[in-house]
Amino acid sequence: MAPTEVSSTEVSAPALDGQYGIAEHSHVGARDLNLDTHSHRIGSRDPQDHLVPLGREEQWRFTPLRRIRGLHDQTPLTGTDFTVTVNAPAGVVAHSVSGDEANALKGASNYLPTDRPSARAWAASDSVFLVDVPANLEVDGLIEITFHGGSVDEAVAAHLVVRLGTHAKAQVSVVYEGSSTLAENVEIVVADGAHLDIASRQSWSADAVHLSHHHVRVGRDAIVRHAALTFGGDLVRIVATVEYDGPGGDAELLGLYIADAGQHLEHRLLMDHGAPNCRSRALYKGALQGQGAHTVWVGDVLIRPTAEGTDTYEMNRNLLLTEGARADSIPNLEIETGEIAGAGHASATGKFDDEQLFYLLSRGIPEAAARRLVVRGFFGEVLARLGIPAVVESTNEIIEGELEISGI
Amino acid sequence: MSTLQIRDLHVSVVTEDTPKEILRGVNLTINGGETHAVMGPNGSGKSTLAYSLAGHPKYEITSGEVLLDGEDVLAMSVDERARAGLFLAMQYPVEVPGVSMSNFLRSAATAVRGEAPPIRKWVKEVKGAMTDLEIDPAFAERSVNEGFSGGEKKRHEILQLSLLAPKIAVLDETDSGLDVDALRIVSEGVNRYKAQSAEAGNGVGILLITHYTRILRYIQPDFVHVFAAGKIVESGGPELADELETNGYVRFTGAGASA
Ligand SMILES: Nc1ncnc2c1ncn2[C@@H]1O[C@H](COP(=O)(O)OP(=O)(O)OP(=O)(O)O)[C@@H](O)[C@H]1O
Ligand SMILES: [Mg+2]
Q1: Angle CA(B153)–CA(B158)–CA(B161) in degrees, nearest 5?
Q2: Strand partners, B72
Q3: Which of A366, A300, A23, A392 is closest to B108 using CA atoms?
Q4: Does the reported pTM lie above 0.90?
Q5: Does B169 touch chain A (CB under 8 A)?
Q6: What pLDDT does residue A394 have?
Q7: For the stretch A17-56, what's the b/e string if a residue is b when 16 or more beta carbons lie within 10 angstroms of its beta carbon?
Q8: 20 to 30 Å CA-CA from B60: which of A99, A127, A181, B85?
């Protein structure tokens, strides 16, 4: 069967008819794609410094602005109809702080808002939810935070800070559920030698809109495994950026998403390599089913002149389970030093493969079970890397439930 | 013992514009315990016959019937046919990334046997079958057929044959792409299953599709059929294969065959 041919920088589906399989394009080595990274560097806390996006900007061109309820413009972010519940093992600080304390925490990751919704959420959130793991503490058990939205009517601003002290070790699960119109910043600070596994699962009701900016600051020799697991909501857009404090940092960004009819799920990454001998990996996999299901993945990697010995690889794969769905996938790599250990990316979007299905059926496996085998196999690679057993288990259940939607 | 009856089978391939007739009236009866070799030139429709029996959606049955022990095979879905005891070893086995061989084999065995085999017994069974076919145990954890060499794929087809224990097995050019050693190993695998099934009192019926006579030195056919232009044009015993070995298909692909 002829594979689906994809281009190196931009991939749009649906694939051409009569083509099967997931093809893959990849290249390894230095290549300059003239990534306009300067737009990523300009940060400001003041919403007035950010123009109202019109939709033609590179960062917004895939997002249906009409559906984001004015979060990018001037919808008041005054909603309070939500609850945050926490389940934290001993020794971990996990609570809401306000006033000066909150203001002092904002920016703990060095992040400054890079777009208007992010700046507006920054300014509008009176309190900050803080998860603080003291230095040298190896937390036994999962830190669980659940954000439950009560209504989409009044838009909400939120700010979460997850901070690990030097040589601390922890696993964090953040779950979003219910209904909300939410603009949010998540700052993740992993100090030198610390190790954090964090999973953010967007399990919203069908009417939710969620714009979030995650910024990860990776300390010297620190390890971060960050996962975005997006299933629910009308529109979810998560921008995750990573910066390195010193050499030896290691960040792995994982993603798993399933878009149903009408859903817009967008994930954007920037791995900003400024320190030498750091490593980054991105592995995002998505499945789409139903009319108007739309996913966007943009993975930017910037290797600055100071980042010698960088080792980076990013990969996005999308599986179109039905007709009428669209996956955009754009990896970008900009390399400003000749001294790198490795850099590459791969992106592929393919249809459910009829020949694979026939092969499984011809061995007696019923169609529903055969399709599940293939989809489970597809996502298995991401789940195997998650490292948080409870999150893997709940994600598996969600995948099974999602597959039932399309009768798969 | 089972019987597969193919009667006046006409099949067209579904193409973009017009359907193209490939099989033009195939008649063949295979009884359990018998091995039928079907030999024919490239493009004569051998794989079309194999896929049509298995139920590949690309092929449209325009007339005729296929019965397995009197049951209408053509009315069954692809998976039902397999569960009814029909097995197709494919000429080009399909790669299924992300699905491990062991998971796949167990899913298939569970479906065909109607219940999940007890795990410890199953592990032993698979291990034994892999050893018989000289397959490295590491393959169990690899994705189905992904990155396998041509010969490795064929060995795994025969592995499935032995684990799924069909009543009727269609082997589509299982010999192609095999070196002499692999050909011997794979043939022994087929013969082993043939003997086991006969011993158990329900000898497998085999439809062995091949282009070359080479495999017939290892797997003895009871009947040889020459396939040309979409149907069987001559049938005989093993001596027919010898004639093909000497003279090729010329006698069958001339004006006589297409008439
Ligand atoms: N999808 C298709 N579209 C058009 N023609 C097809 C299609 N599939 C098969 N055919 C044609 O049908 C005929 C029979 O093909 P088939 O694969 O059954 O032959 P075969 O006898 O198995 O050949 P080989 O010895 O090469 O395996 C060929 O002429 C082939 O080109
Ligand atoms: Mg063929």
Answers
A1: 130
A2: B67
A3: A366
A4: no
A5: no
A6: 96
A7: eebbbbbeeeeeebeeeebebeebeebeeebeebeebeee
A8: B85
Q: Which residues crowd ion ligand 2, with CB under 5 Å?
A: B 46-47, 91
Quick one: which of A176, A177, A69 has its CA closest to A117?
A69
Nearest to A362 among B54, B98, B144 (CB): B54
Residue of B51, B78, B92, B115 to mutate, interface with A, max A Cβ within 10 Å: B78
Q: Is the dihedral of CA B69, B70, B73, B75 positive or negative?
A: negative
Domain ranges of chain A: 4-349
Mean pLDDT for B18-34 is 96
Question: Which of A38-42, A209-213, A307-311, B35-39 shows the lowest per-residue confidence on average (mean pLDDT)?
Answer: A38-42
Q: Does residue A287 register a pLDDT over 80?
A: yes
Q: What is the 3 state secondary structure string of B33-68?
A: CCEEEEECCCCCCHHHHHHHHHCCCCEEEEEEEEEE
CA B11 to chain A, closest CA, distance in angstroms equals: 18
Burial of A65 (0-12, 13-18, 19+ CB in 10 A): middle
Ligand that lies nearest to the alpha carbon of residue B40, given by its number in the listed order: 1
- Scanning B84-204, the segments in alpha helix (DSSP H) are 101-113, 119-132, 150-164, 180-199
Amino acid A106 reads K
Q: According to the 3-state scheme, what is the secondary structure of A77-114?
A: CCCCCEEEEEECCCCCEEEEEEHHHHHHHCCCCCCCCC
Tokens representing A45? 């806390």
Distance CA A310, CA A338 (A): 10
Using CA atoms, how far apart are residues B181 and B168, in angstroms rounded to an integer? Answer: 26
CA distance A230 to A258: 7
Half-sphere exposure at residue A403, Cβ-oriented, CA atoms within 13 angstroms: 20
- Digit-coded pLDDT (tens) for B146-166: 999 999 999 999 999 999 999
Distance, in angstroms, between B94 CA and closest chain A CA?
A: 6
Tell if the CB–CB gap between A373 and B104 is shorter than 8 Å.
Answer: yes
The Å distance, Cα B45 to ligand 1 centre, comes to 6
Q: Among B56, B77, B160, whose Cβ lies nearest the Cβ of A363?
A: B160
Rounded to whole angstroms, how far apart are CA atoms A152 and A149?
8
Cβ separation of B164 and A364 shorter than 8 Å?
Answer: yes
Q: What is the ipTM of this complex?
A: 0.96
Of B93, B108, B144, the CB nearest to A364: B108
Task: Give CA torsion, residues B130, B139, B175, B90, to 10 deg.
Answer: 110
Q: Name the more confident of A5 and A233.
A: A233
Whose CA is closest to A355, among A12, A10, A117, A21?
A21
On chain A, the residues whose CB falls within 8 A of the CB of B94 are 355-356, 358-359
Q: What's the gap in Å between the CA of A292 and the closest CA on chain B?
A: 27
Chain A, 9 to 48: residues with Cβ < 8 Å from chain B are: 22
Decide: B3 and B22 in contact? Cβ < 8 Å.
no
- Domains, chain B, in order of start with CATH, read 3-98+167-258 (3.40.50.300)
Mutate to test the pocket of ligand 1, among B9, B13, B174, B208 (most ligand atoms within 8 A of CB): B13
Identity of the residue numbered B104: F
Quote the crossing angle between the two packed helices A354-361 and B101-113, to the nearest 10°: 50
